[in-house]
Design goal:
Layout: H1 4-20, H2 22-26, H3 28-46, H4 50-101
Helix pairs in contact: 1-3, 1-4, 3-4
Length: 107
């Protein structure tokens, strides 16, 4: 049978990965691979090579999921790094403030 369900699902997952933004920004290679595999799946389906088309559609779906996961992880890592940097800056400011209020002129 034609891999209609697999193709539909793969198209949906790849489109969602495109719309999310983080996959394109942080995992472009994974997302491109998903697009390539989806194109192969469509081509093979059109040629009546249903088993091969199904396999490529499933790979495209997995690669799109990987791209989204990798993009989200990188986005979270960046956010954590930004928070860490802000905390470090704040700590330096607090320490700088402590030395100005505990100096000899304040005794």
């Amino acid at each position: 049978p034609k891999p209609t369900d697999e193709l539909t699902k793969a198209h949906t997952v790849v489109e969602q990965a495109d719309k999310g933004g983080t996959a394109q920004h942080y995992a472009a290679a994974d997302l491109q691979r998903a697009h390539d595999e989806l194109a192969d799946a469509d081509r093979l389906s059109g040629q009546g090579k249903n088993d091969e088309a199904r396999a490529f559609a499933q790979r495209a779906e997995v690669d799109a999921d990987v791209a989204v996961a990798r993009g989200n992880a990188m986005e979270q890592q960046k956010a954590a790094s930004d928070v860490s940097q802000a905390n470090s800056t704040l700590q330096q400011e607090v320490q700088r403030g402590d030395t100005t209020t505990t100096g000899p002129e304040h005794n």
